[in-house]
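Notes to self after the Tuesday call (sharing in case useful).
The group wants a holo model before anyone commits to mutagenesis around the pocket. I volunteered. Ligand is inosinic acid. Logging inputs and output together so the record is complete.
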Amino acid sequence: MRDEVSVLFTEEQIARRVAELGEEIATAFAGREICVLGLMKGSLVFMADLIRRLPLDLTVHLVRVTSQREQAAGRVLTEIFFSTSVPLEGRDVLLLDDIVDTGITLSYLLAHIHEHGPASLRVCALVDKPEARKIDLNPDWTAFPIHEPLADRFLVGYGLDWMERFRGLPFIGTIPRPR
Ligand code: IMP
Ligand code: MG
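Result:
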């Protein structure tokens, strides 16, 4: 299966971009302690690399969102699970997302986190597909924006999956969009 994947961003490109983001984010939060909240499971690898490039005092937490799409009713039911009870009130929160596609998952999550009263809430995405957006919402930082016609391929690797596969690839690759 792995040999069906074409490389899009190499390990070296990712490392360089993550280091740049680390500097930008550290500048934005200079002197503050941040709460890094990684969206499971797609942002796990990204989070592991990025936190080691952030010269800031920080704590690390995970959040998981599950969605059940009821096709007929066109309804999306979503549940949010925090890995640990995270005291977000008054904290500077940096949410790490894997891919912002329609923006539905992110908007739901942001609304929920806002209810906890963080002092600030910013978003850093590994990949952004702005052309696919259904909700007008943009991450504060993006490692790799992906534009048409590449949005037609499905991204895998470096934590990103297709049916739970490919997360362990050290690079970001693409496969033909599964039907
Ligand atoms: P949204 O709610 O439509 O923005 O969906 C975002 C979620 O869809 C991401 O967190 C990914 O889990 C998944 N996703 C969207 N596009 C891709 C892709 O190309 N590869 C892997 N997962 C994707
Ligand atoms: Mg996924």
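Two things stood out.
The chain has a mean pLDDT of 91.
The chain has three helices and nine strands.
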